[in-house]
Specification:
The protein is an alpha/beta fold. It contains 14 helices and 10 strands. It is elongated.
């Protein structure tokens, strides 16, 4: 018994820095258990833990979050992704009331959350840089707009499937309040129109990635605004945006010259990923002009960064690699 007691005391008195180093090597369920071993461990882990995930929790996530949030007050990255909806508003409100240092929060698939969660986050977590609320279909655009008024440091925002929240009014608020935004996912937000996208383009000039897949209302005007104002744009999703025509594609191609004037390292700029699947109005000359302008766009096997599936009329479009392979085949045939 004495030997066991000594061993326990040795573990209990382990320096905080070493304990946190050990905890960093363990999975999150084990860390959660370790935080209940003794008061010393609980204090050390609660004080020093900055990254925590409950996505492993299949049941009772809400009650666990209610007990954990008041203890893990210095957490900066909190992952609450769910396979089935468990969280309700009181858990998020508890997080907002206690975890004021959060910079990265994942609430994806939280179908049961309502606007009170966003209002609580607006007041309690002003340092948010990355927020994932994809699939949170109950949030309204009013609550999202309110959030952006307080969380002005947002750089990465995932609104995929947030049909009610992602309205043109909300996008205007994002453009007005979140000038540092670099990545935005609006996939399948069917109410988004040119007015909303143009507000983003004018208000968020540092956008690197924008997913508009399934935003069926947008037209060339959205893409032209992005081409003119967002010179850092590297990834653009336009899947099933069937109102997009060659005019938009030529605007993207011509924006390369503006990048060259704005940036000394223009070779590193330009689109690297573009999804124009099911954009059936596009023609090969326009898409080829874009491909020629942006050498990082590839149609060759294994490097598909220009996705044109569903556009049978674009099969003749080739990237630089494709032309090189074509020339090699011709040389061998002769």
């Amino acid at each position: 018994m004495i030997g066991i007691r000594c061993t326990y005391d040795q573990w209990k008195d382990i320096p905080m820095e070493l304990l946190l180093r050990i905890m960093s090597l363990l999975d999150h369920p084990t860390v959660f258990i370790a935080s209940s071993v003794c008061s010393t461990w609980r204090h050390s882990i609660s004080t020093g833990l900055t990254h925590f995930s409950l996505s492993w929790c299949k049941n009772n996530m809400n009650s666990l979050m209610l007990s954990v949030a008041p203890r893990f007050t210095n957490v900066r990255v909190l992952i609450l992704r769910q396979e089935k909806p468990q969280l309700v508003d009181n858990a998020v409100e508890t997080v907002a009331n206690n975890c004021h240092e959060i910079e990265d929060l994942d609430l994806s698939k939280s179908f049961r959350l309502n606007d009170s969660s966003l209002y609580a986050l607006a007041h309690g977590c002003p340092n948010l840089i990355k927020l994932n609320i994809s699939g949170c279909s109950a949030f309204s655009d009013t609550a999202l707009a309110y959030l952006t008024g307080f969380c002005r440091k947002l750089r990465i925002l995932n609104l995929c499937g947030c049909v009610k929240a992602a309205s043109d009014n909300a996008l205007k608020a994002i453009g007005d309040n979140c000038s540092q935004l670099q990545s935005l996912n609006l996939g399948w937000c069917e109410n988004v129109s040119d007015a909303g996208v143009m507000s983003l383009a004018y208000g968020c000039p540092d956008l690197h990635a924008l997913d508009l897949c399934g935003c069926v209302l947008i037209t060339d005007e959205s893409v032209i605004a992005l081409a003119n104002k967002c010179l850092n744009l590297q990834s653009l999703g336009l899947y099933y945006c069937q109102n997009i025509t060659d005019r938009a594609i030529y605007a993207l191609a011509h924006s390369r010259s503006r990048r060259q004037k704005a940036y000394a390292s223009a070779k590193e700029q330009g689109l690297r990923n573009l999804n124009i699947s099911q954009c059936t109005a596009l023609t090969p000359p326009a898409v080829q002009a874009l491909c020629d302008s942006c050498p990082s766009l590839h149609t060759c096997p294994g490097r598909h960064s220009l996705i044109i599936s569903g556009c049978l009329n674009l099969t003749s479009v080739r990237c630089a690699c494709g032309f090189q392979s074509h020339r090699q085949v011709n040389a061998l045939s002769h």
